[in-house]
Design a protein that fits this description.
The protein is mainly alpha-helical and 374 residues long. It has one domain (5-373). Helices cover 77% and strands 0% of the residues. It contains 17 helices and no strands. Helix 5 runs antiparallel to helix 16. The radius of gyration is 21 Å and the shape is globular. The relative contact order is 0.24.
């Protein structure tokens, strides 16, 4: 199959749309603690969707995984578990900073580390990247992406300065810039391990191709291994929170405990009728919204692996395009959800510049890959 980098860019845009959108369905979850809906959604993100999609679209999935080198499986799993450390704090990033700024800061770190470390580890950065015209153009595209992320962060900081505390809380109820930056930094650094996990799992894709899988789907078995590592970390942490916060019952009960109702109401003690309504949990809707969020999250890497197969010898650049696409679409969601309401014209101009710069960066990286396959 001949690589088509611009088709790859389109696939990465679709992945960015999925990633930038996945948190929106969680807004429909009512009266569940974060650790409950995060784990329910996670089962779909990291276990159910990856195995179903890989089973449908690839050949001999179990045989492929059994033939894969143990070193590749273990390394991919470990990187997935490390990514999980960053992933489980990713939701907290958006809770404290909002979808636009939170994703911009966290993904800034993730983009740099996840893009550059694989070619450096393979000893290819000097000769294959900096030593070729295509590679140099890709590096320029990466730098443009970093500029776009920086401008996005500037827009977020400008918004934070302009808005009153009440305005901040109305759009992002738990807005906390200082705490959010710390969480986003931690999350971003560890989230980059996903790129290393996919790189380590490359032999799995080769084996899948040897079994007759169409090239565009060969990345799906890799996801089964890397995401299993991520699931492990997230499962352990969510269960710890379930025990600590006594929220494990929420998976199965249609009513909140009285203590949780009072905690939500604060000092105000509800009447008996109000308490009955407050205790009632929309279980079916919560599971459906969590499943939708989790499946949407998985689709980002479903499209990512498709895009990666189209990028030729510079497939590591897929990570930059993916990160830029996520920020673009998460920012658009932030605008749609009125997170930027009340911002000044200057802040909105910065935001527009950031979006234009990020879109341009994906085109530049795609062009660099295009030159390489000519």
């Amino acid at each position: 199959m001949i690589a088509n980098p611009f088709l790859g860019v389109v696939f990465h845009w679709l992945g960015g749309l999925a990633s930038g959108s996945f948190y929106v369905p969680y807004r429909g979850v009512k009266k569940w603690s974060w650790e409950v809906y995060w784990l329910v959604g996670g089962f779909f993100s990291w276990i159910i969707a990856p195995w179903i999609m890989a089973s449908i679209n690839t050949c001999d999935l179990l045989a492929v995984l059994s033939e894969a080198p143990a070193g590749a499986l273990i390394t991919a799993y470990i990187f997935g578990a490390l990514w999980g450390v960053g992933g489980l704090t990713f939701g907290l990033t958006m809770r404290y900073l909002g979808m636009s700024l939170g994703m911009a800061v966290a993904l800034g770190y993730t983009a740099v580390i996840g893009t550059l470390v694989p070619p450096i580890m393979h000893g290819e950065f000097g000769s294959k990247v900096l030593g070729t015209t295509s590679g140099q153009i890709i590096v320029i595209g990466i730098l443009v992406c970093m500029l776009g992320i920086t401008i996005t962060g500037m827009a977020g900081k400008s918004k934070e300065k302009e808005m009153s505390k009440d305005q901040q809380r109305s759009s992002i109820k738990e807005f906390n810039f200082g705490k959010g930056i710390l969480v986003a930094t931690f999350s971003g650094v560890f989230s980059a391990c996903f790129a290393m996990g996919l790189d380590a799992a490359a032999p799995i894709a080769d084996i899948s191709a040897a079994h007759g899988t169409t090239m565009i789907w060969t990345g799906l078995p890799k996801l089964c291994v890397v995401l299993l590592g991520g699931f492990t970390t997230n499962f352990i942490w969510c269960v710890i929170l379930n025990v600590r916060n006594r929220t494990g019952y929420q998976y199965f009960h249609k009513q909140l405990r009285q203590a949780d109702v009072l905690k939500d109401k604060g000092a105000e003690r509800p009447s008996e009728a109000e308490a009955a309504v407050a205790r009632r949990v929309p279980m079916l809707a919560n599971y459906l919204f969590s499943a939708l969020a989790g499946t949407t999250w998985y689709m980002q890497f479903f499209f990512y692996t498709m895009g990666e197969t189209q990028m030729g010898q510079y497939k590591f650049s897929s990570w930059t395009i993916h990160m830029a696409s996520i920020i673009i679409f998460s920012t658009l969601w932030g605008i749609a959800l009125k997170e930027w309401k009340g911002s000044s014209g200057f802040t909105k101009v910065l935001l527009g510049m950031a979006l234009a710069t990020l879109i341009f960066s994906t085109i530049v990286v795609g062009f660099g890959n295009y030159l390489a396959v000519q």
